[in-house]
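Title: Comparing notes on inverse folding

I've been comparing how different people in this forum approach sequence design from structure. To keep things fair, I'm posting one structure and asking everyone to reply with a full sequence. Here's the target:
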């Protein structure tokens, strides 16, 4: 019970410190990850479950489904109901992660294409500007009458 209270207080503290600091998010996630890892390695089932979540979603570490389910299994062996539920939905969770990775890759590809098109458009606009400037410097024929 004391470990749960300590974990809860740490999470509240970190959440409070994290709010409003999006640019420092990764550092806070890494600190929370190390805290969870230490408690999980000591055998705390709630910390083992939360460490699995952190591995699943890539909080403070790179996403790793095998490592996530390793920690879910350890927590489930100690009777953690959330971990037991995760294990029972393993295939669905892994498929969702694969689909998300595919969607993210497609989005990255679309973003890269949009950036390429925007750069191409800006290059054309710069060429037109340069051409107009040149014509202003060296007009050809009589002005509009």
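Reply #1:
Here's my take.
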């Amino acid at each position: 019970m004391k470990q749960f209270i300590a974990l809860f207080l740490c999470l509240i503290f970190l959440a409070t410190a994290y709010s409003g600091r999006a640019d420092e998010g990764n550092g806070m996630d890494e600190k929370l990850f190390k805290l969870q890892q230490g408690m999980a390695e000591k055998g705390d089932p709630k910390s083992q479950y939360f460490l699995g979540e952190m591995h699943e979603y890539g909080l403070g570490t790179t996403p790793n489904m095998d490592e996530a389910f390793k920690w879910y299994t350890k927590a489930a062996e100690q009777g953690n109901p959330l971990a037991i539920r995760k294990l029972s939905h393993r295939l669905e969770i892994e498929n969702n992660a694969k689909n998300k990775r595919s969607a993210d890759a497609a989005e990255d590809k679309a973003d890269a294409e949009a950036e390429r098109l925007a750069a191409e458009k800006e290059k054309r606009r710069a060429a037109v500007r340069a051409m107009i400037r040149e014509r202003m410097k060296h007009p050809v024929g009589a002005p509009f009458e």
